[in-house]
Structures are given as C-alpha cells and as structure tokens.
C-alpha cells in the first residue's frame, strides 16, 4: 500500500512538473488579419499543419476586417502581430509615431485582384475599358492603387477615360457588380472563380501579373514588441517559412483540403482553382524576405495614386535580419 501511495505521489509530481514546463514553453500570440482570404493560404497552412505549435507558439487568430481597424488593433495592443498591407505601416510612419511599425515577414508578393467583366471578351485589350463603368476598390487601399497603376501603365486615365466607382464597401463590391451597371470589377479569389462558375462574370486579366512584385500583405509588429520579443517573432517567422515551402511543393487540391475549415462556404473545387491561380502567378511569397526593390515599387505605386504621405526608408520600416536568419537555418 505504501509503495502504491509513493508511486501515485511520484506520478502526480511528474505530471505537475510536465504541465508547468509545457505552459512555460508556449508563447501566446494575438494575430490580427485584415480580412479572411484565400490569398493568405500559407498563414492558414501554418496553423493547420501545426507549424506554429512546433515552434512553441499558440496563435489566437482574429479577423479585423479593414486596414484601419487592423492597425488600430496593433497599436492599441489588442494584437501582437498584424497581417495587413505594407502601406499601413507607411501611414503610421508618416504620423511621426513614437513606436513605428516594422515589416518582418512577407506573405504575398503580388496584387491579389483580377479584372472581371460581365461579358466574355476573348480578345480583350485594356483599351476596351475606356468609356466603361469600372467598379474599383476602396480609395487609398492597395487594390485600388494597383488598379490605377495598371490602367495608367496602359495609357488609360482612371479618372478621365472611364467612370471609376470607389465608394462601395469591400464586402458589398461583388453584389454591386451583379446588380449594377458596371462592366468591369476588381475581385479577389475565390469570388472571381465563383462568378465564372455561376455565369456572373469572366476573369479576363490579372492585376498581379500586370503590376509586378511588391510587398502586398506582410506580417508586422510594433518596434517595441519586436525588441522585447525577438525570439517569439523569430519562431513565428520560422513557422510561416515552413508553410511557404509546403505550399510551393504541394498540389493545390491538397492545400485546399487543409485550409477548407477557414472557407466553409466555398466548394473545394473553387478553393483549389483559386489557390492554383495564385500559385501560377507567384502571388504566394516563397520566403518571408521583403526586398528593397519591391518596397520601392510599392512607394512608386502609392505616389502615382497620390497616396504616399512621405518617403519611408526601407532600412527603418523593414527588418530583414529575422527572415535572413530563418531562411539560412
């Protein structure tokens, strides 16, 4: 009886110590994503495949629905890390913030929108958009800035050569296109593929292919958080890099099965075709490293759209040390 009692006590002590060590080793991260999107597939892969868990991280993912709200969550400490467009960090920098926002890991490296028309246009040229009604994205956001950049690239003035609509909320754009008079619209996946399948529109061009590489969606955090939690940010970046490599090496149908819990209302075939479309145009960054060339290209696009408040130096707003260390391990 005495031996049984001692054994029970020993077991209890070991379980208590193991539990204490486990909880001590796990770091919790509040992660805010600007929207829920197939475009962010590698992030969901990192969660579902257990890559964050392997790095000793417990990620609490929240969708904050908008760049302004996402940045507010980050600056007010309601989020530790944010997944949002790099332009938001520039807006904060331009306000002479005492605690600037640092971009440390790139997730997507192209624009994620596609040009969708109501009628099929097998011989489409960008000239066809002249004198049309064009339903664009929200003014000041990267999709709209890229949209204007691409139109100008093809010698089309987005404010004089067509009727550009910019006052529709992001969530209402698909419905406004179906019920309205616009011939063209900028849509993300999987909406673009769903419209094709349902006969509501035709994908005729890619803004991602037309605008080249840029840091479209990036993981960022406050400088103070990075200084105080560099090891956590490094572990986070390792998990993202694992997911990026897995996405590059894996069939789109298999990827779709992994991330489907995040898109329960989207059929698996649509999810797979959307992921494949992004893979084909290299939208998913292969590594977390954000290049200076793409950073400068981002600012060029913002400047041409009249939305660049001030030049933001690459070496001040981008941390490359962590991404370099992670990819070299």
From TrEMBL:
Q: What range does the record give for the signal peptide?
A: 1-19
Q: Where in the cell is it found?
A: Periplasm
Coiled-coil annotation: which residues? none
Keyword Signal part of the UniProt annotation: yes
The keyword ATP-binding belongs to this UniProt entry's keyword annotation: no
Q: Entry's Gene3D superfamilies?
A: Periplasmic binding protein-like II (3.40.190.10)
For this UniProt record, the keywords arranged alphabetically read as follows: Signal
Which Pfam families does the entry mention? NMT1
Annotated SsuA/THI5-like domain ranges read: 41-249
Q: Name one GO cellular component term.
A: periplasmic space
The family assignment reads: Belongs to the bacterial solute-binding protein SsuA/TauA family.
Q: What is this protein called?
A: NitT/TauT family transport system substrate-binding protein
Query: Which organism is this protein's natural source?
Result: Pseudogracilibacillus auburnensis
């Amino acid at each position: 009886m005495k031996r049984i009692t001692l054994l029970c006590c020993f077991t209890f002590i070991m379980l208590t110590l193991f539990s204490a060590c486990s909880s001590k080793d796990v770091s919790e991260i509040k992660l805010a994503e600007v929207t829920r999107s197939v475009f962010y597939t590698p992030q969901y892969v990192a969660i579902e495949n257990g890559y964050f868990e392997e790095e000793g991280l417990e990620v609490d993912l929240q969708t904050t629905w908008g760049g302004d709200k996402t940045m507010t969550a980050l600056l007010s400490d309601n989020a530790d890390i944010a997944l949002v467009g790099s332009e938001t960090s520039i807006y904060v920098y331009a306000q002479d913030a005492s605690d600037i926002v640092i971009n440390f890991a790139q997730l997507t490296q192209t624009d994620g929108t596609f040009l969708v028309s109501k009628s099929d246009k097998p011989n489409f040229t960008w000239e066809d958009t002249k004198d049309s009604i064009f339903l664009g994205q929200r003014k000041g956001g990267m999709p709209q800035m890229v949209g204007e950049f691409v139109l100008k690239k093809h010698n089309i003035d987005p404010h004089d050569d067509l009727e550009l609509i910019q006052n529709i909320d992001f969530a209402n754009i698909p419905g406004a296109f179906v019920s309205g008079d616009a011939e063209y619209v900028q849509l993300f996946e999987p909406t673009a593929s769903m419209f094709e399948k349902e006969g509501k529109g035709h994908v005729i061009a890619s803004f991602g292919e037309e605008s080249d590489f840029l840091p479209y969606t990036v993981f960022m955090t406050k400088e103070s958080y990075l200084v105080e939690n560099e090891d956590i940010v490094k572990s986070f970046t390792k998990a993202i890099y694992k997911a990026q490599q897995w996405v590059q090496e894996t069939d789109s149908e298999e990827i779709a099965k992994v991330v489907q819990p995040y898109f329960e209302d989207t059929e698996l075939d649509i999810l797979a075709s959307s992921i494949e479309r992004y893979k084909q145009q290299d939208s998913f960054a292969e590594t977390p490293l954000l290049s200076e060339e793409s950073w400068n290209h981002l600012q060029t696009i913002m400047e041409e759209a009249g939305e660049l408040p001030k030049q933001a130096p690459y070496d001040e707003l981008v941390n490359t040390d962590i991404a370099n260390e992670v990819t070299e391990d």
